[in-house]
């Protein structure tokens, strides 16, 4: 009798992504997408009543944002691994997610066979980091004394960094508010804090900085 399939839940607000991941894992013998969620709140509701072996989490969804979800999973289901699934290949954002408890950060354009191997690595109890992510984590954790100064974006809170990233990506205040389920007024306050901390006066300065530091491509 074979080993039981590993039960995976995917949380993504795009049905085509959920279906695509289902098709990828249908080709495997050891894991399957056993459930889906279209937003963070739905995911957390399902986690409270059903047991899974792994969560695949889209980085931007309606309702709770990925960092808040990660923190809640870490608090309530600390043994449950979470793999972040994102359209953005940015390693700076990836390291933020890993520091908050993610076991891996996968770009949605990654080859399906590599995705399968990453998921197997995480399901075996390990974390998966790319070489750039490993180097950044080593700099932050292993050799912090070698850092000559703190970069401006490192002064931002997790929420501020998320909004900074979306601002630099060209999203409007109303679009950001919808994505993170906050009011436009609250987003405006966060924007003011970000601009003050980073000493910027315009969005173009912020975007230029993000490009120069590899935060957006």
Question: Outline of this structure?
Answer:
With 217 residues, the protein is α/β, with parallel strands linked by helices. The protein is built from ten helices and five strands, in the order βαβαβαβαβαααααα. The chain has a five-stranded parallel β-sheet, sandwiched between helices.
Any overview of this molecule?
The protein is α/β, with parallel strands linked by helices and 217 residues long. It has helices at 15-25, 40-47, 66-76, 91-99, 112-123, 131-142, 158-168, 173-180, 184-198, 203-212; strands at residues 6-11, 31-37, 54-58, 82-86, 104-107. It has two domains: 6-139, Response regulator (Rossmann fold, 3-Layer(aba) Sandwich); 152-212, Arc Repressor Mutant, subunit A (Orthogonal Bundle). It has ten helices and five strands. Strands 2-1-3-4-5 form a five-stranded parallel beta sheet, sandwiched between helices. The mean pLDDT is 86.
Give the CA-based shape: globular
Total domain modules: 2
Q: List low-confidence stretches.
A: none
Specify the biggest β-sheet: 5 strands, parallel
Task: List the helices and strands in order.
Answer: EHEHEHEHEHHHHHH
What's the total count of β strands?
5
What proportion of the residues form beta strands (DSSP E)? 5-15%
Oligomeric state: single chain
The structure class reads alpha/beta
According to CATH, the fold-level topology of the largest domain is Rossmann fold
Mind telling me the C-alpha Rg?
A: 18 Å
* Mean model confidence by pLDDT: 86
What's the tally of helices?
10
